[in-house]
Amino acid sequence: MSVPTGSLKQRVLRAGGWTAGGFAISQTLRIVSTLIMTRLLAPEMFGLMSIAVMVNVITALLTDLGITQNIVQSRRGEDPTFLNTAWTVQIVRGFIVWGLALVVAIAIYFGGREGLLSPDTVYGNPVLPWVLAVSSFSIVIASFASTNTAIAERHFNQRHLIRIDLTSQIVSLVAMVVLGLWTGSIWSLIAGQLAGGVCGTTLSHLILPGERNRFGWDPKALGEIVAFGKWVFFSSFVGVFALYADRLVLGGLVQASVLGQFAIASTIVGAVQGVFQKLYATVVMPALSETARNDRPRLREVFYRLRVPTDLALLFVAGMLAASGKLVIGILYDHRYGDAGWMLQILALSLVWVRYGASQQLYVALGEPKYVAFLNFARSFAVFAALFVGFRLGGVAGAIWAFSLHQIVNGLMTYYFNASLKLNDFKRELLVLVALPVGYGVGLCINLLRPT
C-alpha cells in the first residue's frame, strides 16, 4: 500500500492540480464529443438519453451506501478484509440496481403500449424502454471497479485516477463517433457509455497500486459499512429525485426536442458543476477527513482555506454564463439548439449553490452524513414544489427559473448546521460574493465581441 508523502497542504495542492487539469481535459473531450454528436444525431435523441441517464442515476442512488466515502474516512479504510467485503457489497448492489432499472423499463414499455403515456412526451417514446434496459447495464460494469480507486482518493493519488478517467473517455468517444457515423442512431451513445465503463473498470484493476480485490464477507466490516451507509442511503433516497427533478417533471410535460435543448444547456452547467464536485469529493473530503482524525481544532480554518478559492471561481463563472449564455450556445452549436442559449443563462444561477457541496463533504468527513440527509430531504420538497409552481406560472422558462433558485432553502440550512458545529465565518462568506457581479460584467464584455 502506498504511503502518503508531504504535508497535507502539499498533497492537497498536488491533488487539486491533477484534478483541475484532468477535469479540464475531460470537459474538453466532453464538449468535443457533444459538438460531434449533435451534428450526427437529432435533438430528440439527447432528450431520450437524458431520461435514460436520469433513471440509471436514480436507481443507483436509491441503493447508495457511500462505500467510497466510507473507505476514505474510515480508520479501517486500508484493511484488506474491510475492502474485500466492501467490494462484494458493491457488486451485489450493482446487480440490484440493474434489476430496478429493468423494472422501470418494463413499466414504461407497458405504460406506453396501454396508452397510459402520451406519445407526444419523452416517456411515451417507444424507443425509451429499450434504451433504459441496455444502458443500465453500465451500472453492473462499474460495480466491479477496484476499491483501490477509493484508496487512491484517500491518499490524494489523483494521477492514476485521471489517467483511467481520460482513457475511458477517449474509448467512449471513439465508440460513439464510429457508430454515430455508421448508424446515426441513439445506440451510438449507449455503445460509448458501455465501452467507457468496461475500460475504466478494467484499468482500475490493472493500474492502481494496492491489494487485489477478492470476494469476502466479514460481519464486522459489513456492520461498519451498514452503520455508515444507512445515513448515506437515506440521504440518497430523499435527494435522488431532487437531483433529476427537472428531467422528471419536464419529461412528462414537454416534447423530446425541448428536453433535448434543456439537456444541452444542462450539459454546460454540469461541466462546470462537475469539476467542483470532483474537487470536493476527491480533494476536499479527504483533506477534511484527515484533519478531523488528526487535528480537529484546525478544521474550521482548513475548511475555509479550501472553500474560498472554489467559491470565488464558481461565483465568477455563474455570473459570466448568466450574461453570455446565448453567445456560448451560438458558438458551439448549430441553429437547431438555439433555445438552449436562454436556458443556459437562467441555469447558470444554479451554480451559486454548488459551493455548499463543500459543507456536505465536511459532514461526511466528520462521520455525520445525517446532515446531508436532512439537506437532501429539504431540497427534494423544495425543487418539486418550485418546478410545478414555476411551470404553471411561466411555462418552461418559469420552471427553469424555479429550478435555478430553489436551493436558497439548502443554503440557509447549511449555515444553520455549520453554526451548530461552530464552523461559520460570515466575513469570508460575504467577501466571496463580489465574484458574481464581476463575472457578470466580464460576460457582458464578452458579448460585445459577438460578430454582427
How would you describe what is shown here?
The model has no long low-confidence stretch (mean pLDDT about 80). The protein has a domain at about 255-450. It is built from 19 helices and no strands. α2 (about 45-60) runs parallel beside α12 and α12 runs antiparallel to α13. It is mostly helical and about 450 residues long. It is globular, with a radius of gyration of 22 Å. About 80% of the residues lie in helices and about 0% in strands.
Can I get a quick summary?
By secondary structure, this protein is an all-alpha fold. It is built from 19 helices and no strands. It is globular, with a radius of gyration of 22 Å.
Mean pLDDT: 79
How would you classify the helix and strand content by structural class? mainly alpha
Instruction: Tell me the fraction of residues in β-strands, as a range.
Output: under 5%
Low-confidence runs (pLDDT<50, min 5 residues)?
none
Number of helices: 19
Q: Tell me about the biggest sheet?
A: none
Q: Report the helical percentage.
A: over 70%
Rg, Cα atoms, Å: 22 Å
| SSE run | HHHHHHHHHHHHHHHHHHH
For the termini, the CA-CA separation is 59 Å
* Global outline: globular
Number of strands: 0
